[in-house]
Amino acid sequence: MKILVISDVIRWEGYEKIVDENQPDVTVLAGDLTSDGFASFWSEAIEQIPEYQDGLKKLNISFKKKGNITFYQWVGGRPEKYGNKHILDIVREVKEKYRNSKEFLNVRKRIHVDKFYQFLEFAGKKSQILVVKGDHDEDFEGDYVPERIDKIDGCKEISGKCVVIDNLSFLGLGYDETHHVRSLNSFVEKFKGKVDVVITHCEQSRLPIISLLKPKIIIRGHFGSGKYLVNDIPSVFTMDVEYTIIELENKKLPKITQYITDLNNNIKILEKGSCRPWFSSVSEFERYPWLKPYPV
Questions:
Q1: Among the four residues 31, 44, 94, 212, which has the most C-beta atoms within 10 Å?
Q2: DSSP one-letter code for 254
Q3: pTM for this predicted structure
Q4: What is the pLDDT of residues 259-283, one digit of tens each?
Q5: How far is CA 71 from CA 74, 88, 92, 141, 262, in A?
């Protein structure tokens, strides 16, 4: 079985092509799909609001995009009232005026949330789609609607649920199911030894508990990238990558390949991932005794 994994989506453009090129049997969406802390809409939606653009012009600031990055510069010199204040601090102050505006919410929904559901409509015709909920999927009320996902042909929202596809059982454990240890333990007690694939959007500290389920593989969004053994259970972390391909064969370690986008917007294979906490000088393998490098 070939599984395509996507999670923690910055922007939805390009994923339909990825489905067509890889032709997966199952497509897994491992959380933070309608919103994410690093999603491009936090800047792009505001940048499309005319009042925001006019506000920057009045401050002698222009901006242009290169790839996924926005560059700002002073036009005609920095106003005296700002002294040596950094231009990004000024831009941030202007953005805050529009962060909760009706215009921002409408544009954000059009450029990100609507495209998530458009992707489901497309991909559901190509493979079976399994979706779990991430913590950021609750950022905006009414965006992530399990009932709406389930109504789309080929799609299932499986947070807290188990489904069987081609004799393989998939258990979905979204952020809500894993954040509280008592709740997570109840799932472990119910499904231990009974599932093949766990799809989760969990915090780092919950992985050892999830490994007690003894699946063939853990697919985990939320943080980190790379393939590992978690208490000897094959695991892949999918946050910092464009997409992941998993090939499952009987009695063999899963073949896991991850792809990233470089600064020139070219797709290439991820050679080495990381789930080390940000700003830490201690490697993940030193920090987590339950974590080992993947053997292949």
A1: 31
A2: P
A3: 0.94
A4: 998 877 789 999 999 999 888 889 9
A5: 11, 10, 13, 31, 18
